Amino acid sequence: MKPYLLVYVVLTMLISCKSSKKIYKRDATANEISASTHGQKETERESFKDIKPQKREAKASKSIEKNIIDYAKQFEGVRYKWGGTTEAGMDCSGLIYESFKTYEIVLPRISRDMAKKGKKISLRKVNRGDLLFFKTGNRRNSINHVGLIVAIKNNDIEFIHATSSKGVIISKLNEAYWQKAFFEARRIL
Q1: For the chain, what is the domain count?
Q2: Contact of 78 with 89, CB cutoff 8 Å
Q3: Nearest one of 104, 81, 59 to 95, comparing CA atoms
Q4: Which of 145, 163, 168, 170 is catalytic?
Q5: Top mean-pLDDT range of 22-26, 33-37, 157-161
Q6: Which residue is catalytic, options 18, 45, 109, 161?
Q7: Half-sphere exposure (Cβ direction) of 94: Cα atoms closer than 13 Å
Q8: Helix (H, G, I), strand (E, B), or coil: what is residue 61?
Q9: Do residues 19 and 165 touch, judged by C-beta distance below 8 A?
Q10: Active-site residue 161, yes or no?
């Protein structure tokens, strides 16, 4: 029985958080891609040692949603690493898990398990800090990707997530790929 359980856990983790969106220019680093697409200096991303959680009471003027979003954005440009939860590499659920955990909100580690938490909401009612869940690639029968809403501009939802091809990035839900893969939105906070 134990070998089957181990195989199940390994298979679950392999399919839990992978985007099938491909990038063909693989010679650029995640930092170069991020810096070139966002107009930021690479030096801004050199050290993640300064990333420190801001406790709820330390920034009373900021909402918990803003704190979580700001924390997640510090990882923009970090490369994708399956099972990763640090500046050395992140997967999509690792990014969300760590961002919420920093503010004492513990979610399951796998995206499809995260999708069982909170309250399901319609896209018309989403706010910053809500989660978007996707069924991507060959695994369209189960949730395998998650993103955190960081902005809503002109009826377009922007979310931060980690893709296997570009690492931690901000995407827009109105992009054809993400529209097709979108499954549901959930409110945790």
Answers
A1: 1
A2: yes
A3: 81
A4: 145
A5: 157-161
A6: 161
A7: 23
A8: coil
A9: yes
A10: yes
Q: Is the dihedral of CA 113, 89, 36, 26 positive or negative?
A: negative
Q: Which two tokens stand for residue 59?
A: 């920034």
> In whole angstroms, what is the distance from residue 109 CA to residue 34 CA?
26
Assess if residue 179 is contained within a domain. Answer: yes
**pLDDT tens, 102-133?**
999 999 999 999 999 999 999 999 999 999 99
Instruction: Tell me if 127 is assigned to some domain.
Output: yes
| 62-104 pLDDT per residue, tens | 699 999 999 999 999 999 999 999 999 999 999 999 999 999 9
Asked, for residue 19, whether it belongs to a domain, the answer is no
Q: Please state the pTM of the whole predicted model.
A: 0.69
Residue of 90, 92, 110, 114 marked active site: 92
149 in any annotated domain: yes
User: Which tokens sit at 118?
Assistant: 């909170």
CATH number at residue 73: 3.90.1720.10
Residue 140 belongs to what domain range?
Answer: 29-41+60-187
| 38 given a catalytic annotation | no
130: CB partners within 8 A, 6+ apart: 121, 148, 149, 185, 186, 187, 188, 189
Tell me, yes or no, if 17 is annotated catalytic.
no
